[in-house]
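Hello,

Our lab assistant flagged a job as stuck in the queue for most of the afternoon. It eventually completed. Since we weren't sure the result was trustworthy after the delay, we are filing this so someone can double-check. Below is the sequence as submitted and the structure that was eventually returned. Let us know if re-running is recommended.
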Amino acid sequence: MVTPELQALANGFGLTASLIVAIGAQNAFMLRQGLKREHVFTLATICFVSDATLIALGCAGFGSLVQSHPQWLKAVTWIGVAFLVVYGARSALAALKPQQLLPDAAPGANGSLRKAVLTCLAMTWLNPHVYLDTVLLLGGIGGRYPAGPRIYFALGAMSVSLIWFYGLGYGAGRLAPLFRKPMTWRVLDAMIAITMWGIAGLLLAG
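-- returned structure --
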């Protein structure tokens, strides 16, 4: 017999899994860092802890509070749009001058940890889609459960984030041989630019 707690855990896991696999700012950034094998553990940890914090806030009732103050969400949306447009432009420029993943390059040798951490934090905390998925959507659904099952719903959602970001970061390294070709980087950066601009356009469209 399935208990309410196990059902809530499964629901949280399944719903989050369906949301997190979509191409977004966090995923694109983690994929790129994983391919270069730069600061993967630190960045995956930031993504997971950030997601877990937002999911917890949402399930605790913060999602309802945000919905009652639409001006907060509007402000975050405009900040996020500006960031996505700029990062999309950065990726588009990178596509015009593709790099090459050299087989003898030392992992983490080229990228600044500080820069990577700041970019990762911006990808998470300045990205309105993160709030929509974690605080509003997951928090809104999780908030309907009684106190006990609600905790299990949140744990199920958080476990997906844990598996996904570490898996994406470390699993991307298996694609490294493919990314020794500059053309592959060109395609990836172009896709990231289109994705960032597409998300910004969707946010502007409401």
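-- support follow-up --
The delay was a queue issue, not a problem with the job. The result is valid. Residues 95 and 186 are 4 Å apart (CA to CA). The chain has eight helices and no strands.
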